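User: Quick sanity check before I run a bigger batch. Here is a single chain. Can you write out its predicted 3D structure?
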Amino acid sequence: MRLVLWDVDGTLVDSAGIGPDAFPLAFERTVGRPAAELPEMAGRTDHEIGLETLERNGIEEPERLWPEFARQLAAALAELEPAMRERGRALPGAHDAIAALAEASGVVQSLLTGNLKPNAAVKLGAFGLLLPALDLEIGAYGSDDRHRPALVSIARERAAARHGQAPEQTILIGDTPLDVAAGRAGARASSAWRPAATAPRRSTKPVPTPCSATCSTPRRCWPRCSRRRRKGRTHDVAAPAPVPSPRVAAAFGCPRCRRG
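Assistant: Done. Predicted structure follows.
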């Protein structure tokens, strides 16, 4: 079994900025006053964003208010769903990609998203992406853990419990560096997910060589030395580098040995 976990915002849907609009509403309804500032949100879990929103606005024990904040956040996004549907969109190819993977043998699809579970469903439903191929019950959400990397193990455990076997491979599809970080952390935590199964490409670039026999710096440190000085060309590092005269070395020498 291969487990494919989709991110939501920026990967499957563009909510036209409506999602973030739910946070100041949730804060005001929870605390009773407007939020003075909001944190960076891209790629983070709703739980983490909610706690930082509370902290930045003077709440000393944000975890105490988090359950109510989460309820208000879900209610606020549900109210904003018509505006989201009007202004946002499903991203090109999202529907077709999910449908295509549904035809692949041994593939199970769900979500790994920082959204609360009900908010993820609202966003997908607004754009016709609540498809049978997406099993939301085995996904992992911002309501499960505030730390995104922890969601990988949660989704894998749910998939294993539902299908009677652990996924042989888990594939995360997202759009931010935090999605990549979560995938890497999940790979370290799970022996079954093997990102190294795809061998890294070998570089076709020549390996830098020392600028001369007396230099130990393996870099292109002679852009203007010897015969190539006038042309302003670097060495072809696949070939032996020319040995400059002491005078040229003093002027344009290696930044470490100053000799070349």
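Helices lie at 18-31, 46-56, 62-87, 94-102, 117-126, 150-163, 177-189, 246-252.

User: Great, the batch can go ahead then.
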